[in-house]
Amino acid sequence: MGVTGAAEKWTKRLGLDTAPVPYDVYTSAEQYRLEQQRIFKKCWLNLGRVCDIPKPGDYRVYDLAVLNTSVLLVHATDGKVRAFHNICSHRGNKVAQDYGGCKRYFACEFHGWTYDSAGCLVHLPDEAEFFDLDKATLGLPEIATDLWEGFIFVNVDPKPRETLREYLGEVVDLLAGFPFDRYRPIFGYEGYLDCNWKLAVDSQQEGYHAPHLHRRTLGNTLGGDENPELHMLEFRVFRRHRVLSMPAGTQGVKRGPVDQLAAKYGLSIRNYQDHKGTEGWPKGLNPTRSPNWAADLYLIYPNFWIAPFDGMFQTHNWWPLGPDRLHQRIRMYGPEPRKPSERWALEYARCMSKEVWLEDLGTLEASQMMIASGVRKEMHLQDQEVLVRHFHRVVQDEVHT
Q1: 323: left (phi over 0), alpha (psi -120 to 50) or beta
Q2: What is the pLDDT of residue 249?
Q3: Which of 13, 16, 28, 106 is the most exposed place for a label (fewest CB within 10 A)?
Q4: CA distance 30 to 25
């Protein structure tokens, strides 16, 4: 569902109520248990991109507390990307205990049971001493895996209720044609936060905070003097997913000399290319075709965020570790620098992005602490926070269905 314009409040246009949202969604252990069982163990979840495991034999290990499992993601020798529960069929040890690498076979360090990249059990020492083994049934337990635009998704439900295409819905058509494969990881950050995962997601699905929280880093490059409170160009909500379209400033934008020089040689989240036309762009990229567009933020339910810019894109993954702790991974993708000036501009963009992200992350642990105090029982959302409201409605619908 998508609409443009601001004659009517977005909250009403998108069919949402205006009631306060209770704070216990961030603190309740029972809420978190239900989210584990009814959301994370049922939904398609992004683990990264194919460029993370580009060659046959490449693999990554993801220990995912919210799923109560360790996932072994493999670029198999037959060219397919596969995911497995990282458990040996013998005594339950982790088969791969490192972060990643490149292997043709995976041997459990406990007793040497060995699996190929298709997950098949191909060797076990002293096999004659076992009783009635059927090796064909003792491979690594496979996890449903599928790709979209080079993004790798997994679903640990043994019988997923939807295909990945069905799950992504309208997002597939809206972003069809964006050149994701043209760009490579150019920098990124990851770390741990003592806050609820939804609190972190909420921080990235509204622009209401930017003129205040990012005044030292972004200044008025988003919105400019003509839009000082940074009202979005458009909001859209789908069955589960959401998107906002963010404006760049065109009037009174203040830039220092270093910032101007960096903008001359490369992209960053403080500068945006002059849009020379929207012909050939995906229909979901700058959907209003605004000349002062900055980026679109796609929130893929439950814990994945993609922000396409003109010439790069950014991703966030939020992985819950408990009701009040998470692991966050942030990646920026763009063209690789070809000369020293572009390399310098990239370093500027990396440092600038780090400062912006630290501003975002710096509020979350303090917010979690005070929410957990119980002094206040609910939060009051304004119209530009409509996607926060939609997200919580979807979460509550799913955990109570």
Answers
A1: alpha
A2: 84
A3: 28
A4: 9
CATH number for the segment(s) 2-38+182-399: 3.90.380.10
| pLDDT band for position 274 (cuts 50, 70, 90) | low
Query: Pick from 332, 325, 328, 320: which is nearest to 270 by CA?
Result: 332
Question: How far is Cα 161 from Cα 165, in angstroms, rounded to an integer?
Answer: 12
Q: How does residue 273 score in pLDDT terms, banded at 50, 70 and 90? A: low
Residue with the two structure tokens 């619908």: 397
Q: If pLDDT is split at 50, 70 and 90, which confidence band does 2 have?
A: very low
The predicted pLDDT at position 259 comes to 82
In sequence order, which residues have a C-beta less than 8 Å from that of residue 293 and are 6 or more positions away? 233, 245, 246, 247, 248, 272, 275, 286, 310
Q: How far apart are CA 156 and CA 361, in angstroms?
A: 29
Dihedral sign (CA 123, 124, 125, 131): negative
Question: What is the mean predicted confidence (pLDDT) over 302-325?
Answer: 95
Q: Is the peptide bond before 302 cis (omega within 30 degrees of 0)?
A: yes
Question: Beta strand pairing status for 142-148 and 81-85?
Answer: antiparallel
Domain ranges (residues) in the chain = 2-38+182-399, 45-161
Structure tokens at 256: 């220092």
Strands 151-155 and 142-148, by their bridges, are antiparallel
pLDDT of residue 272: 62
The residue type at 125: P
Beta bridge partners of 3: 235
Look-up: residue for tokens 């440092």? 351
pLDDT confidence tier of residue 275, bands split at 50, 70 and 90: low
The C-alpha atoms of residue 377 and residue 27 are separated, in whole angstroms, by 11
The reply to whether 2-38+182-399 and 45-161 are identical in fold is no
Residues 363, 358: Cα–Cα separation, whole Å = 9
Instruction: Report pLDDT digits (tens) over 44-99.
Output: 999 999 999 999 999 999 999 999 999 999 999 999 999 999 999 999 999 999 99
